[in-house]
Amino acid sequence: MYGCEAWTISEQTQKKLEATEMWFLRRMLRISWTAKKTNDTVLEEAHTTRLLISKIRKRQATFFGHVMRREKLETLVTTGMLEGKRSRGKQREKLIEGLADWLKAGKSLEAIEATKDRKKWRTMIANAVKQGT
Q: CA 76, CA 73: separation in Å to the nearest integer?
């Protein structure tokens, strides 16, 4: 998870991370791949929920809040508001768009404004972690 603060997590990446997490759980619980157990039963046996994605998103949100409060060059790079022409084709997903979806903030501008108030930002993160992904 080193450097996960700067990852953009698409649906495909999220599915891969969830599959890897399930593989880890099955290995730790010593459940054979030939055993006919669903992922839900494995999660019940482990007495846990899916943690990997929520931990990554929490780290991203805290890092994003830190960067946005500094208001330096990193802010422009993180939000993707740089001058110049956009490349052709489908545009890449930005970190702020993924965080805004996870935080259920609506638009990315609402999330950016929420970072100014540290207490409000922390409560938004805590609520999103409670609700899960």
A: 5
